[in-house]
Amino acid sequence: MMQDPAQHDSFAAVDLTVAGLRAGSNISPQHVDSLNDQAHVLRHSDTQQALSLGKRAYALALQLDYQHGMAYSLLRWGVCSYILGHAVAEVRARLQAALELAQALDDAQAQIEALNVLAMLHTDGGAHAMALQAYDRCLALARNVGDSRFEGRTLGNMALVHRDLGQYAQALDQLQRYLALAEQADDEQGQTYALANLGQLLSALGERETAQQALERSLATRYSQQNLARQSTTRLDLGQLLLKHGEAGEARAHLLEAVELSRQTGNLRDLCDALHGLAQAYQFDKDQDAARQLLSEAHELATRADDKQRLAAVQLAMGRNLIERGDLEGAETCLQAVLRQAESLGLAALLSDAHQALASVAEARADYQVALQHFRSFHQVHEALYGEQVQQHLRGLLIRQQVQELQRQADDERNRSQELSSELTAARQADQEKQMLLQQLSAQTEMLHQLSREDGLTGVANRRWLDLQLAQEFERARRFAHPLSVAMLDLDHFKSINDRFTHLTGDKVLRAVATLLRDVCRRSDLVARYGGEEFMLLLVETPITPAASLCEKLRLRIEQFDWSTLHPALTSVTLSIGLESNARFDQLEGLLAAVDTRLYEAKHQGRNRVCAGLP
User: Fold this and answer.
1) pLDDT digit string (tens) for 97-137?
2) Which of 42, 57, 179, 228 has its CA 20 to 30 A from that of 419?
């Protein structure tokens, strides 16, 4: 049943004196469709012109009672109004009306487009659950009609929500599926967006090289070159990535271009993000006044768009700017507001950053107790976002992505070689190229496995990850004056176990010891294999006395374990432990040397004991 045109009179505040409505003018549904198509093409390069076209299309469709044209013109009008940052209530009303018309017409494409932008409005307002529900409806519609392009773009938008919520593994998986769908459909626009969003996520995860490659590939596509809004966003992401790694000059060039492009298109949210990014560049150069002016403009734009998430991000930058300018009271007020907003919206990354900034404020005031409280909160959220298990999961996804990409290249090369020629020379050349690609695949896979943080035999942290965490935790303990204890554990007479019971039994012993250590230690502690039969414990926020008690408990647990379950003749396994805390050391090297000395003492005092540098 078609809808009554009078239902849409509230949207008819358009110029009905356009040439197409003069008496006797020759207007048609095809003319309405043409205007809607033009508006769709121009929405990311000249949004204001696209908006005018959408309004004209709506006026003509209303005169003709052309329901399909009304649905799409309301959609174009709503999308352009969203991009330009018009009042949220008006934008939502137009999109909702477009959605209802599309449902009445059983037009899946229009429903998907309307739901996607309505979901973006939910995200801006912090209603992430409602946004994901709308995206789920989009996915169901796209899969029902077999439209892989809209399925991919919906997955890309869902990934942005999961990214904002700190659910990085889900976001990465969805973006990889988006990119695969776009490549299968030869959808250049989809590839452009998928690569850009993937680059942004990889940047957040600290994968600088792969992030930059993805962003540069996105920027180089023909679609991106034609789409000014896409160029603006990708240049912003590149600028922020380069700034994060200290390349301020090149970063500023990208960020200035992002500001110019977003002003040109009129995209309010892009302009807000670009100004925010450029302010960070000026802050990096210690030009706090210039940064403050840019952040003030970005704050005004985020407020106008009623975009709570962007507003909180800008306020975080403003708080950091106030810290640099010495206004600690103003900074604290600003950052506390960000903290409340981040908690309300469930934005884990923003919450982590707010706690870190507030710790800096408290430290500057010499209020170390409050600084420590904020730092602990920062560490807790940061661990949930980037902890060892999360990183292992993400690393697995990245490995699979790299392997699939190299395999795809190998398959493409093989297919090209088969098409080129059946001659012997061409076949040999194709085989050589294939072997080179397979070698690259093997080398890349091996490199990514080496980057894994887990010891392959025992499942605890490996030496590389241990070294990184030691340096980081020692510096944090020194900076915030909290205790840190480090223990070195060495299995006694382990060589004799290998010699008497085989290396297979020795490996079983190492795995069992690792499991016992993890069972006794806290989740916040780090258990690592130092090398051979040696393990190391990193006990954060733990003074030497309770650390010594923990080590004694570990020693007894190992001594009392029923080792005959691993081999009938294996009756005893013990370990010696050397323990020190950071209390007497200004350098990490000194602490580690002292731990080694304590272990040496334990060995020479008869083994199966704990030697600690107790006060």
Assistant:
1) 999 999 999 999 999 999 999 999 998 888 888 989 999 99
2) 179
Q: Report the alpha-carbon distance of residue 545 to residue 614 in Å, rounded.
A: 7
Alpha-carbon gap, residue 233 to 200, rounded angstroms = 10
- pTM to 2 decimals? 0.58
Q: State how far Cα 215 lies from the chain centre.
A: 14
Across 203-221, b (16+ Cβ under 10 Å) vs e yields: bbbebeebbbebbebbbeb
Provide the pLDDT for residue 433: 63
Specify the higher pLDDT residue, 471 or 419: 471
Q: How confident is the model over 471-483, as pLDDT tens digits?
A: 999 998 998 889 9
Whole-number pLDDT of residue 359: 87
At 286, list the tokens: 């210690």
Q: Which amino acid is at 1?
A: M
Backbone angles phi, psi at 535, to 5 degrees: -120, 160
Question: What are the distances in angstroms from CA 565 to CA 253, 509, 568?
Answer: 65, 10, 7
C-alpha dihedral, 500 to 504 to 510 to 514, nearest 10°:
-150
CB 444 within 8 A of CB 406: yes
**Are 348 and 165 contacting, i.e. CB atoms less than 8 angstroms apart?**
yes
What does the longest C-alpha to C-alpha distance in the chain come to? 108
Is the pLDDT score of 1 beyond 70? Answer: no
Q: For the residues of 120-155, what is the DSSP string, one character each?
A: HHHHHTT-HHHHHHHHHHHHHHHHHHT-HHHHHHHH
Report the run of H or E that residue 383 belongs to, with start and end.
Answer: helix 368-386
Region of residue 341 (phi > 0: left; psi between -120 and 50: alpha; otherwise: beta): alpha
SS3 assignment, position 540? strand
Residues 6+ apart with CB under 8 A from 569: 500, 501
Q: Are 62 and 12 in contact (CB under 8 A)?
A: yes
Closest CA to 591 of 475, 450, 485, 432: 485
- Token digits for 466? 């241990």
The residue ranges of every structural domain in the chain are 1-106, 388-450, 463-612
| Cβ–Cβ under 8 Å, residues 76 and 36 | yes
CATH topology of domain 463-612: Alpha-Beta Plaits (3.30.70)
DSSP 444: H
How far apart are the C-alpha atoms of 315 and 417, rounded to whole Å?
A: 56
Q: Which residues are within 8 A (CB) of 244 and not within 5 positions of it... i.e. 6 or more apart?
A: 203, 208
Residue 528: beta bridge partners? 461, 536
User: Would you say residue 7 has pLDDT above 60?
Assistant: no
Residue from 487, 488, 500 nearest 563 by CA: 500
Q: Rounded CA gap, 210 and 166, in Å?
A: 20
